[in-house]
From TrEMBL:
Pfam family, one: CoA_binding_2
InterPro entries registered for this protein in UniProt: AcCoA-synth-alpha, Acyl-CoA_Synth/Transferase, ATP-grasp, ATP_grasp_subdomain_1, CoA-bd, Ligase_CoA_dom, NAD(P)-bd_dom_sf, Succ_CoA_lig_flav_dom
Species lineage: Archaea, Thermoproteota, Thermoprotei, Desulfurococcales, Desulfurococcaceae
GO MF annotation, one: ATP binding
Protein name, entry field: CoA-binding protein
Domain of life: Archaea
The keyword ATP-binding is assigned to this record: yes
Domain ATP-grasp per the UniProt entry, residue ranges: 496-532
Length: 704
């Protein structure tokens, strides 16, 4: 489907309502009434085998009886009949179908099979489907209300795509009071065909949409979601409220990375790469949307506050700083001007307190002074109704100055009830964001600032990926051999060979199957050596006495071999034992971890952090979605506490950070090229002094 073709869904030339009803209270009646009352100008065809006219329109026995072409069919028949109806739509040449009917995948059992057959029929004829089990769609500019909900009167630049029909209904009822103007509204339902990515792509190109809101409980194609999201987010803000996030999957992980990279972590990494803003509440979702709909994107995070209540200014300042925004430091020129223009008891520093007896003229002085100051990127104006306060006149000042200084966002906070009601309505009518409480305005301002930062970030991470000489066939061959033996966990020497094939330096390692074999390998590698149990069933070798280090002679190797095998059989009697790993001891370096885990929705997540035995204790780690850019690799290292140690702490020489970045990029390429890898740890990765490189000391790989 070309994204532009979706115009026949939102701006159809003709609509058929299949299952239209003459009975008020029936969904078929409500949908037809919605289309008519919504002001749709195209042809409308009710389809009902038992009616001649419905709501004054000629009704047809079946869709095949309808004269002319049909762009959109809205299907509201029982689920059992929907399959035959879809077949008829296909023969009629219908382009799009909105299936409102329930009784499909959401009920399980036979509903799953019914939905599969519905989708297959639609695909056979090239019909694109919204739903089933959905509320419908709306386009306020067409206008078209192909749903059984009331369409808001106010249109604007906000598109809302929701997986919950009930939430959508509530929002539509609340929107007029909040002054929210929608462009398009979509209820996704079961997402049997069209899903959030399809609508994201279309809305990204839609000139009537300024900001895209998503409420999702699942994401169908995580990789495509990130790819399309990053394209759209560079043009307009995308804000997501994600429901149903759980960390339950982490419990089953076999690696450190898998244990620490749950669903929330993967989602966060994916959204960052896509440039999509994530919120945690419905309030934040729409508070940000209101701001994006009318306000410019600030140049920075320095925020000014004008208030007539000292307490309000203090609380708002705390909120700003706690959310990662900065309280603007006013210029000396601004401070001197405010000192001369405001009463002596007023606070001329940010937050600027014009004090309780401030009328509109005093607000004007302070607001304009801060908007003129180059050190202020955005402004919050707080008003509490006191005896001499002029809410309506102050609202007029805000409206006027917002137009005059249109390059900086202005958000109003009018705290109160009846005394500020009229002023609040004035601001809403003039498209000025106004909030009841400071925390909501701060969240909205954070959204504006975050979007600027995310847009810049997306541009950086889209820079060319590093390309390496790698041996993919060797890596795949090792994995295939393990699969033939029905093993999910590679033995350590196999795992090291896999990462070595992608250019990661490893400690020389071989598998020994007997004492004599171990001695032979130790001599070949060179003493001293370390011996480790080789078993796919023993995850933490040292916990079962499966690691003995610093062996310097043949005798020590022979004894260590016997001890390790004995310990493993005693502590893990059912474990499959393949022998003992012999590894040459390498110089100790600073210990870090580089890992990867495969998220079922978004694919591989790369992890970096403090390594060794304290990885899961301190959890000093960072995550990014693969494939990594050089910028992301550098950023991953810099945002951990380990970075302080790596740069050189208390006289220690700097570590080879470039080699860590190189390792991160190589691991990223490995898991991208070899998707069979589901979990992976290099822990520890020894990092030596600047220019001396790194060595992978222990490697763990789990495959599908």
């Amino acid at each position: 489907m070309r994204e532009g073709d979706m115009k026949y869904l939102f701006k159809p030339r003709s609509v058929a309502v299949i299952g239209a009803s003459r009975e008020p209270g029936k969904v078929g009646f409500a949908v037809l009434r919605s289309i008519i009352d919504g002001g749709y100008k195209g042809e409308v065809y009710p389809v009902n085998p038992k009616a001649d006219k419905i709501l004054g329109l000629t009704a047809y026995k079946s869709i095949s009886d309808v004269p002319g072409d049909i762009d959109l069919a809205v299907i509201v028949v029982p689920a059992q009949a929907a399959l035959d109806v879809m077949e008829e739509c296909g023969k009629k040449g219908v382009r799009y179908a909105v299936v409102i009917s329930a009784g499909f995948k959401e009920i399980g059992g036979e509903g799953i099979e019914r939905e599969k057959r519905l989708t297959e029929t639609a695909r056979k004829y090239g019909i694109r489907v919204v739903g089933p089990n959905c509320l419908g769609i709306m386009d306020l500019y067409t206008p078209l209300n192909a749903s059984f909900a009331s369409m808001p009167e106010t249109r604007g630049g906000i598109a809302f795509v929701s997986q919950s029909g009930a939430l959508l209904s509530a929002i539509l009822d609340w929107a007029p009071k909040a002054g929210i103007g929608f462009s398009k509204i979509v209820s996704l339902g079961n997402k049997a065909d069209l899903n959030e990515v399809d609508f994201l792509a279309y809305l990204g190109e839609d000139p009537e949409t300024k900001v895209i809101l998503l409420y999702l409980e699942s994401i169908v194609d995580g990789r495509r979601f990130v790819e399309i999201g990053s394209t759209v987010a560079r043009k307009k803000p995308v804000i997501l409220l994600k429901g149903g996030v759980t960390e339950a999957g982490a419990k089953a992980a076999l690696s450190h990375t898998g244990a620490m990279a749950g669903g929330v972590t993967a989602l966060k990494a994916a959204l960052r790469k896509a440039g999509i803003i994530q919120v945690s509440t419905i309030s934040e979702l729409f508070d940000m949307a209101i701001a994006f709909n009318s306000q410019p994107i600030p140049m920075g995070s320095r925020i000014g506050i004008v208030t007539n209540a000292g307490g309000g200014g203090v609380v708002t300042s705390d909120l700003l700083v706690s959310r990662g925004l900065r309280l603007a430091e006013l210029s000396k020129q601004t401070i001197d001007y405010l000192r001369s223009a405001l009463p002596p008891v007023a606070s001329v520093y940010n937050p600027v307190d014009v004090i309780g007896d401030a009328k509109a003229d005093r607000y004007r002085v302070a607001i304009e002074a801060l908007l003129k100051d180059p050190a202020v990127d955005g402004l919050l104006v707080i008003l509490t109704p006191q005896v001499v306060t002029e809410p309506e006149e102050t609202a007029k000042v805000i409206i006027e100055l917002s137009r005059q200084y249109s390059s900086k966002p202005i958000l109003a906070v009018f705290i109160g009830g009846g005394k500020v009601e009229k002023a609040t309505k004035m601001l809403i009518e003039k498209n000025i964001p106004v909030y009841e409480m400071p925390e909501r305005a701060v969240a909205a301002m954070l959204g504006l600032v975050s979007y600027r930062e995310l847009r810049e970030y997306v541009a950086k991470v889209l820079e060319r990926m590093e390309i390496f000489d790698v041996d993919r066939e060797r890596a795949l061959g090792i994995i295939e051999e393990a699969r033939k033996q029905n093993r999910r966990v590679l033995l350590e020497h196999e795992a090291k060979d896999v990462v070595k094939s992608y250019g990661v330096p490893v400690a020389p390692t071989k598998l020994a199957t007997s004492e004599d074999h171990a001695i032979e390998i130790a001599r070949r590698l060179g003493y001293p050596v370390v011996l480790k149990i080789a078993s796919p069933d023993i995850t933490h070798k040292s916990d079962v006495g499966g690691v003995i280090m610093n062996l310097k002679s043949d005798e020590e190797v022979a004894e260590a071999f016997r001890t390790i095998i004995s310990n493993a059989r005693r502590y893990a009697p059912t474990a499959s034992i393949h022998g003992v790993i012999v590894q040459r001891m390498v110089p100790k370096g600073r210990e870090v971890i580089v890992g990867a885990t495969k998220d079922p929705t978004f694919g591989h997540i790369i992890m970096f952090g403090l390594g060794g035995i304290y990885t899961e204790l301190f959890k000093d780690v960072s995550f990014r979605l693969a494939p990594l850019s050089l910028y992301e690799a550098r950023e991953m290292i810099a945002e951990t506490k380990a970075y302080t140690l790596l740069r050189g702490y208390r006289g220690e020489p700097p570590a080879d950070i470039n080699s860590i970045m190189n390792t991160l990029l190589r691991v990223s390429k490995l898991v991208t090229d070899v998707p069979e890898i589901v979990e992976m740890d290099i822990n520890p990765l020894f990092v030596y002094e600047e220019g001396a490189g790194v060595t992978a000391v222990d490697v763990k790989i789990v495959i599908e």
